[in-house]
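Problem 12. The chain below contains 364 residues. Write out its predicted structure in token notation.
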Amino acid sequence: MEQQKTVSLYFTEGSSDKSYQATLRERDGGWVVDFSYGPRGKAQKTGTKTETPVGYAAADKIFEKLVREKTAKGYTPDESGAAYTNTEHAQASSGLAPQLPTAITEATFATLLVDPRYGLEEKRDGENRLLQVTGEGKVRGINRRGLYVDIPQAWAATQLATVGGSVIAGEHMPGDQFDAFDLLEIAGENLRSQSYAARHARLVQFAAQLGAPWFKVLPLYRDSADKRGEADRLRACQAEGVVFKRLDAPFESGRSAAALKFKFVDSATCIVVRQNQQRSVVVGLLDAGGDVEELGNVTIPAGEAVPAVDTLVEVRYLYRYENGCFEQPVYLGPRSDMTRNDATVDQIARIKRKTAQEMPAMAE
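Solution.
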């Protein structure tokens, strides 16, 4: 249903007492997302996330993304209905770290499709997330850096909160869906030393008992024909890629050789070097010496906020020209879960070498 939305958010810490209000409203035959902010009880500054009216679906997506970004920074909603959990632990270290897959080449991808030691799952394009349920029944989110982050209140207010001593690995997807792919602890039982095949089977059982509509388990394909068929389907529908999991491997945190990723389309976490006069920015990556190497312009879609200089953004690309820029770059959005040290040139796997015809002519 197309309807106006308004959310009021507040941030109180030390001497700070600020408010932020986001509104999705109809204007000139379309929909816009406006905001206001400033010290609580005083005159507010105003702005908009939509320079011109857009369709309702696009405006609603911008509105929901804006609310998520603000709550992730410590803002909390008013009593009309909390959308995210309390932020008292946000950005504190959890002492836990997720497993991060290692990138592979297309040749290795083809080999693993027929290797019975590895299963295949879809590589989702959300944010890596661990869900930790404490012994007191509190559900907390942990990002790829091992820091506590806010999670949707709906995740914490379900039967999941009754299963204390549990840790589940997955992806936080748009629409506040959780796509789970590993079970590290369940009701105080540590499963990390068990094989991935066994952990995934326990995860499927757990999800069936939980019965939460927002909680989904990614299917695991083991047979070669099934793996090839799923990979073909995902490539045809332009999914991000696949992850191969070593079926007999125990869990290990950090970058892992037991989890191997292959992307059908590549992307990189980049640094915004500068803003252009039009709706585009110049992005770059850190070279081996720590200097920023520019990789060209990226257009920011209408309705998206133009990212500030030195912030991190995700950019999808077809390939990079040798010692040059991205070919067909596409802006995917900000990356608040990454650090500047992640924005390095060694992320780039697809490089197009210059042919003899493309080389500059030698002066006679």
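Discussion. The mean pLDDT is 86. Students who got a different answer should revisit the alignment rule from Section 12.3.
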